[in-house]
Design goal:
By secondary structure, the chain is mainly α. 31% of the residues lie in helices and 2% in strands.
């Protein structure tokens, strides 16, 4: 049966409690940290000279669709009523948004060390110790808006501009691709400082703390963020039914990205599914 992913602002109090309880139980079992480990392992920059599937590559969107689906399946083994809600950061774009309430994601980090001290994922509550991260901290951290180097969340107009792209991706198939939905939605751009980060990347940067880098899964808001990114891709697919994943075929020997990105029918580690197999979620879930 097809299930529904809802906007987090439309969740009932009971739905919020169920989602949080399932996430905490997944953490207690040790399964949550395996998702963190997977994301760290596959967070490969495009200057690394090896295969990239999770970031800075065409498979960014199908890889995260599969990653999100595996997480959701793990939650639903605990509570079959739970689905991953989405955070529309073009609307709920302030620290006062209901997303950050004490019964859901908790709030910002404190000024001294950025430690989140409110909500169910606060370290002091005893149920959310960081095991794998790119830093040495054992607690969840956030730094809303980066006050020392201020940044804002993407606007609806900025997102609409990205959705006007007609091709899925373009050469050179990395963080420098000048057009195409994938790189513009992922959010790599020319410039320096905050100008380098757009759309998806900008959200990670706005939340700050552990949401920066490969260990971003340590913050449960990661899933709500990527659920919305997946929704955006789904909307784009509906508007552009003939615009399939690119590249369609493996890149030839001599291409700078030879064996560094996956083509439409090549498997994505660690699951072995192809981008083509992840192109349609309509028989599994829908968005409202």
């Amino acid at each position: 049966m097809v299930y529904t992913r809802k906007n987090q602002r439309d969740l009932t109090a009971a739905e919020r409690r169920s989602f949080v309880a399932a996430v905490l139980e997944l953490k207690r079992r040790g399964e949550y940290d395996e998702f963190v480990r997977t994301h760290i392992d596959f967070y490969t920059a495009d200057g690394g000279g090896r295969l990239r599937v999770a970031h800075m590559a065409p498979s960014f969107l199908p890889w995260h669709r599969k990653f999100l689906l595996e997480f959701e399946r793990a939650l639903r083994r605990i509570d079959a009523t739970v689905t991953v809600p989405y955070w529309d950061w073009t609307r709920d774009n302030t620290p006062a948004a209901s997303l950050w309430s004490e019964d859901f994601m908790g709030g910002n980090g404190r000024r001294s060390d950025l430690q989140v001290t409110t909500g169910p994922f606060a370290y002091a509550a005893g149920r959310w110790t960081v095991k794998y991260a790119m830093t040495e901290v054992s607690y969840l951290t956030r730094d809303f808006g980066r006050p020392r180097d201020p940044i804002t969340l993407p606007t609806a107009a900025q997102l609409d501009e990205v959705l006007r792209e007609r091709a899925y991706d373009t050469a050179p198939w990395n963080s420098t691709s000048p057009s195409g939905l994938r790189n513009r939605l992922e959010g790599w751009a020319p410039g320096s400082g905050n100008d380098r980060f757009r759309i998806h990347n900008r959200v990670h940067r706005w939340v700050g703390g552990l949401m920066l880098g490969g260990g971003s899964v340590n913050d449960p808001v990661f899933w709500l963020h990527h659920s919305f990114v997946d929704l955006v891709w789904s909307r784009w697919q509906q508007r552009n039914p003939g615009a399939a994943y690119l590249p369609a075929e493996p890149l030839p020997l001599g291409d700078a990205q030879y064996r560094k990105v996956v083509a439409r029918h090549e498997p994505m580690a660690p699951w072995g599914v192809t981008p083509a197999e992840m192109s349609d979620h309509g028989q599994i879930y829908r968005y409202v």
